[in-house]
Amino acid sequence: MEKKLFEKYERDQITDDILREASQLFSKNYGIWGKEAARVVGPFAKEVGRKYRERGLAVDLLNQLRRDDDCIYGIASSHAAACLAAARAFGSGIEAIQLGFICEHAAAILKASPIGYIKDAKVRGELFNPEVTHGTVSSVDTNYICDHTEPLEALENVREVMDWPLGELIEGYEFLVILEARRLVRPKSPLPAA
């Protein structure tokens, strides 16, 4: 029997110990922070250890963040799997991503972010500038410096099975996904017994 237990912390409940553990989990399972990287994982950490990947845990974790009154969700990540999980949890999957929606709303959403490095990030890619020639489509320049070996391998694996709409991953950039929230439909009354 498999059991899943999630703990959710509000911003004021996050301690230095929680951030330290999250950063260790991040470095061990996701990417190695470069010497220039001065950031700590944002207001919450969502990392799934390697042996637990491809079981839907990231989607389950992200679903814990859903709120009925949210209408837009977004993620900036250098990892294709994180983008896939967010698109699945909050939208209708990466195949249904609306690039026009991202283009229309990205700058305002980034500017309104309470997270400093996201607020200061610049949108990048041919979605925002058709003259871009390096292959990015929907990215954000966060100056995120880390070892991209594993994220690039993951991106290659994704491209083997599906079209990847967000383009190339450039050093210092992260993919940008912004989605209109898929509404959770709840019946107004209990369903009749079958």
> What is the number of E strands?
4
Biggest sheet: strands, sense, closure? 4 strands, antiparallel
Q: Quick one: overall form?
A: globular
Helix share bin: 25-40%
Task: Provide the fold topology.
Blueprint: H1 16-29, H2 57-63, E1 72-77, H3 80-90, H4 99-112, H5 116-119, E2 122-124, E3 139-144, H6 149-161, E4 172-180
How would you characterize this protein structure?
This protein has 194 residues and is α+β, with helices and mostly antiparallel strands. Helices cover 32% and strands 12% of the residues. It has a 4-stranded antiparallel β-sheet. Helix 2 crosses helix 3. It is globular and about 50 Å long. 26% of the residues are buried.
Précis, in short:
This protein is an alpha+beta fold. It has 6 helices and 4 strands; from the N terminus they run ααβαααββαβ. The chain has helices at 16-29, 57-63, 80-90, 99-112, 116-119, 149-161, and strands at residues 72-77, 122-124, 139-144, 172-180.
Keywords:
alpha+beta; 4 strands; four-stranded antiparallel beta sheet; globular; 194 residues
